[in-house]
Here is the input.
Amino acid sequence: MRLIGLALLLAAGAAQAQVEVDNAWARATAPGAPVAGGYMTIRNKGPAPDRLIGASSSAAAKVELHVHVKEGEVVKMRQVPAYDIPANGSFELKPGGAHLMFMQIARPFKEGEKVPVKLRFEKAGEVSVDFAVGRLGAVAPPAAHKH
Ligand SMILES: [Cu+2]
Here is the structure.
């Protein structure tokens, strides 16, 4: 019985590992700013496409999925219901493109802090990721800590 239990656990772990998140980071915010942007690269190592269908964080009232769209000369943010993550591919969230929007943040995001986020994927389920807070206005993730 114990062996079967272990095999099931390993199988569940393998299914979870189909989706990986790299370079998760958020921008520091100015005092009083109500929102913050979050960025990451989502890698899908599985043979089937997946979708990011939601996110939440204890640091914000809600977390929305946003994209930037050009309307004439004006670039606007728009909320979308999901991001498609191609099979054996990746989807990048970055400044000026797709991003997580932390709405009504509880307090300013400070450089060096971590913001806990729960991502919900259609197939991979819930994935917890810590977003490292980089500089105010940064366009690239903070340098990774080497241990
Ligand atoms: Cu936004």
In short: The chain has a mean pLDDT of 89. The pocket of copper (II) ion is lined by residues 66, 77, 99, 101 (CB under 6 Å). The radius of gyration is 17 Å.
